[in-house]
Write a structure and sequence with these properties.
Blueprint: H1 11-24, H2 37-44, H3 48-60, E1 64-67, E2 71-74, E3 79-82, H4 89-95, E4 100-111, H5 114-119, E5 127-137, E6 140-150, H6 151-157, H7 167-174, E7 181-190, H8 193-199, E8 206-215, E9 221-230, E10 234-237
Helix pairs in contact: 1-3
């Protein structure tokens, strides 16, 4: 499709409308890669500046995303995650019909910082296992996870393939450590350089930070996590009931 230079519609808007139509009709399905820059320039007969403006507009609409070193892809529809029960990433993604994978960034034994020690009910400086992973859904990095476990449990966990085995499943099914409840804290923050690189977004992009401490039987804290979720890929919802008023 060539653009119409006699049209009152700016060139970038014509290209934007054409690409939006192709996304809407499934020509470019969610998760698929758009043609490269040279191909789009040739197809529409436009300048690189015009194409860049079009791409930025489509990104701002949440229709496409740039994956560093890979290209430009049609965005997946934003996930709606209900905060009604304790569940892991793999369980959540499968419930949404997404294919979950993981990339292990690091795993090591370290001395617990004061905040980590507090969350796990340990003495400051006590040995803990620290695990870092990128959680991926249908090829899109969705979450950067940091997990801390008490050393006695964590050393067992890191013997497994953490790019395949979910930690929750390992705890419950392999090591007979049922998870009963969790303390959950959610806030909106800007991605720092480390998180942005992991999630393939720009530093400063809006993300969700979830801090979650999961407890086993007898109220023992087993798993403390900091989960950084892309703000353009997920939204969180919950159901609230009205507290009965005690007076007027």
């Amino acid at each position: 499709m060539r653009t119409n230079r006699d049209s009152q519609l700016p060139l970038y808007a014509q290209v934007e409308a054409a690409l939006m139509a192709s996304i809407a009709d499934g020509t470019y399905a969610p998760g698929t890669q758009l043609p490269n820059e040279a191909s789009l320039l040739s197809t529409f007969g436009i300048s690189r500046t015009t194409l860049q403006k079009t791409v930025q507009n489509l990104i701002s609409r949440g229709l496409i995303e740039i994956r560093r070193g890979k290209g430009t892809f049609v965005s997946q529809p934003r996930l709606t995650q209900e905060l009604t029960e304790l569940s892991g990433f793999v369980e959540d993604m499968r419930m949404h019909g997404r294919h979950p994978t993981a990339r292990l960034i690091g795993k090591q034994v370290e001395n617990a910082s004061d905040p980590v020690a507090h969350k796990l009910s340990l003495e400051p400086g006590a040995p803990v296992v620290h695990i870092q992973r990128i959680r991926i859904a249908d090829g899109t990095p969705l979450s950067f996870d940091e997990t801390w476990l008490p050393k006695d449990i964590g050393e067992k966990i890191i013997e497994n393939d953490l790019e395949v085995e979910p930690i929750f499943s390992l705890l419950e099914q392999k090591y007979d450590t049922p998870l009963i409840e969790a303390e959950y804290r959610l806030e909106a923050i800007a991605a720092d350089k480390v998180v942005a690189r992991a999630l393939e977004i720009k530093a400063g992009s809006p993300i969700f930070l979830i801090e979650r401490t999961s407890y086993s039987e007898q109220g023992r804290p087993i798993d403390y996590e900091k989960l950084y979720y892309r703000g353009d890929q997920i939204q969180f919802v919950t159901h609230l009931t009205r507290r009965k008023p005690h007076g007027r």
